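Pasting as-is:
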Amino acid sequence: MARQRDVDDQRQRLSEATWAVLTERGLPGLTIRAVAERAGCTTGLVMHAFPTKDALLLHARDLLHAATRLRADAAEAAAATPGQALEAVLLNALSLDDRSADEARVWVSYLAAALADPTLAERHRAGNRSFVARVERLLGASRPAWSAERIRTEARTLVAVAEGMNTLGAADPETYPPEVQRRSMTDALSRTLGPADAGRPAAPDPLQAGGAGLSIRPFDEADTEQVVTLWAACGLTRPWNDPHRDIARKLTVQPELFLVGVDTAGAVVASAMAGFDGHRGWVNYLAVTPARQGHGDGRALMHEVEQRLLALGCPKVNLQIREGNEGVMEFYRTLSYTRDAAVSFGKRLIPDA
């Protein structure tokens, strides 16, 4: 068992190194030597797992497909209706933050490489067809009276808008920033389904603050799986942080500062885990389901967190943002948070994995 765990850990480390090289250097820079340097191992170890560069390329493509599929699964599971799930899955395909922008650049690189490589082309087509099938299924569930041919046609149109916006956003983010991509996608979906219906409320203007239809309350243990799904959809989970253990620990310390936001159907669509140590307040796991991002839910949650911390006499709130996540940094700047002249250190006392 220990040996298998070592093998799994080694492959995970190589996978993370592969992805890091791809996002930093692009497809031309993805070499066995570059992956070895990033992973801090020998080229022989990399070649033991991936004997050729083609094997490495296919593995990296599978990593991208697996990551996007898991987030789409989580976004779909968090939705209350097929229409809301369809919108969440389509928005999940856009480059709306730093992580998805990295993925979009890698995706475009693979698309270009697939034009001259039959094996990569087949892997790319399989991934695209899987996405189309998901959209067809959700569209059919939203519009059961439609013919199969209409569902196929409308689904391909929606996928074309999503992947087109994703590609353009990767190539020209100034012309196609996240708000333009989001609005283009929701407009296309409104033209397909109608501006609003019982299965899919009309999307609020992403430039307006609000959090319309959001109710904020303390976390309940019954919310656990919805919250873990939400965190996965937002890319907050990491192999070294078990979300179930994080929740269990929080419920033993100031559980009243673990908040969730629920929509009008009662589904958990947002979360924030706060705490006060007597000196500083801290905020972790601020998350808003992708379909509602940009609508004011995060702002509303942070306001509630700040009010609860202030009532405890908290003089200042601290939080941590992963380096390079400019979209999240800008969000906090709009809430009057500023970057401290400090370096974050950490030490793991209890391993989760």
